[in-house]
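Mods, move this if it's the wrong board.
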Amino acid sequence: MPLLYHHPFSAASRFVRLILGEYDEEVELVETMPWKRDEKLLLVNPAGTLPVFVDHDGVTASGALVIAEYLAETRGARMGEVKLLPENVGDRAEARRLLHWFAVKMHGEVTDYLATEKIFKRLMTIAEGGGSPNAAAIRAARANIRYHLQYIGWLAARRNWLGGRGLSFADLAAAAELSVVDYLGEVPWEADETAKAWYARIKSRPSFRPILAETMRGLPAATHYADLDF
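Not the wrong board. C-alpha cells:
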C-alpha cells in the first residue's frame, strides 16, 4: 500500500489527502512532526519537509504540488481522463495558477502564521521554536484572510467551482488551507456568504470526512468545524 508522510494539521498534507480521497485511493498515513529530526522521513525526502508520497512500487514524490501532478498522471488518468484538472489546456493553466495561489500565497500569508502560532508551537520544545504565540503574526493572518476569502467568493460567484466548470486542484487547495484555519475558528465567514456556501459544498464531500474527524488534544475544534450546515 502507498504511504503518505503527513501531519494532520499541515494544510499541504490535507490537500494531498483530499486528492487521494477524490481518487478513492487507499494509503497508509505516517504521522510525522517535521520540526523534529526524523530519519525515516529524511530517507525519503532529504529536505525533511511534508508531505511525501511513497507509491507501492517505491516511486517517491515530495511536496504537495509535485504529489498532485504525480497523482493526476498515475490515478486521475487511469480511466482515460485526468480528474481534478480541466481538459482544456487554458483551463488547466488557470486551475494550476489558483492551486499555486492558495497553496503558496494564501498559505504564506494566513495558514502558516496561524498553524505555527496556535498549533505547532504547542507541540514544540523551546529549542524547536515553541513558546508563546506571536501576536503580530496572528494579527497579520487575521487581516490577510479577509481578502483571500473575498477572492474565493468572487471566483465562486462566477464559476461552478473555483477553477472553472469542474472540481479541481484549485478547490482542494483552498479548502485544505481553510480547513486548518477553520479548526481554530479563525475564518470570518460572515464576511463573504458566497465563499461560505462554496466551502459548505466542498466540505460535504466524502473526501473531507476523515479530515473533519481529526482533533488535537488540548485544542478542541471550533464548534461549527465539523458541521456540514454551519
